[in-house]
Amino acid sequence: MKAQPFQLTTLSQSSLQDYMDCAQRFKLRYLDRLSYPAVETEPTLENEKHQQEGEYFHRLVQQRLIGIPAEQIARFANTPNLQRWWENFQNSRELKDLTDLSDLLGLYPEATLSAPLGKYRLLAKYDLIALRDGKVIVYDWKTYRKRPRNEWLAARMQTRVYRALLVHAGAHLNGGKPFEPEQIEMIYWFADFPQESAHFPYTTAQFKRDWDLLIKLSEEVASVSSYPLTEDRQKCAFCTYRSYCERGVQAGDIEQAEAEMEAEELFDVNFEQIGEIAF
Ligand code: SF4
């Protein structure tokens, strides 16, 4: 008997990005729930370690933001990458307010927001939402090995979803009043490029454009019946499903990936993957 596809009820920036990148990948990952048949890049062990360290770094920062003393956390930064990222975080002038003046800010680390989107719920987990001087700043920590271009980041579903959803679902953080798009800014802070954070302010026109796109995508996802393989075969070299799609067995090399693509989204941190650390 043929397995029924999974009934999808939520959408996220990751699932929508997959849908935009390759409809087949979206189907395999979110409807068929196919587990990962192949590694995404070589060398595998090194990349896995980098990803785990990225997840661990997110946990360390989250613990700091809820008030655990830095000295207590520092001893958990126990690999060269973690030590460097932690030092960069501690020494960042841009982020200093978040820990030194935390009583003056509304800080919401690892906040989850959701809102109806067509027949789905749109869900996002934020690294940090910070309220300051009538502004609301969305922070996202990135442990990329390469600083992506701002144009690439601006077009990502994460940048669009996080800001638009904050308008739609953030009123409870603002005394019951929805945030104006102009109050919102999204900041990507790069643990290996601490002086080169990327800032994305927001406008009402951008919000309208983003929400219209999200509605359109949700309608498409709800009604689509065919899931073509991407024509951009470069995406397949770094995709876990490439052997399934007969798009090659050999994993792409990370150095080649970085040379050819902006993306280290392969190593992006997903909160669902992050385990607890006992402090
Ligand atoms: S291997 Fe290529 S075609 Fe297949 S799911 Fe991945 S990106 Fe899409």
Helix content: 25-40%
Number of strands: 10
- Give the CA-CA distance, first to last residue: 48 Å
The topology string of helices and strands comes to EHHEHHHHEEEEEHHEEHEH
The proportion of strand residues reads 15-25%
**Oligomeric status of the shown chains?**
single chain
Which structural class do you get from the secondary structure elements?
Answer: alpha/beta
- Poorly predicted spans: 269-279
Q: Tell me, briefly, the overall form.
A: globular
Number of helices: 10
What features would you describe in this structure?
With about 280 residues, this protein is an alpha/beta fold. It has helices at about 15-20, 25-30, 45-65, 70-75, 80-90, 95-100, 150-155, 155-170, 205-225, 255-260, and strands spanning about 10, 40, 105-110, 110-115, 120-125, 130, 135-140, 185-190, 195-200, 250-255. Mean pLDDT is about 85; it is low at about 270-279. Iron/sulfur cluster binds near residues 25, 230, 236, 241 and 242.
What are its keywords?
globular, disordered C terminus, 3-stranded mixed β-sheet, binds iron/sulfur cluster, alpha/beta, single chain, 5-stranded mixed β-sheet, 279 residues, 10 strands
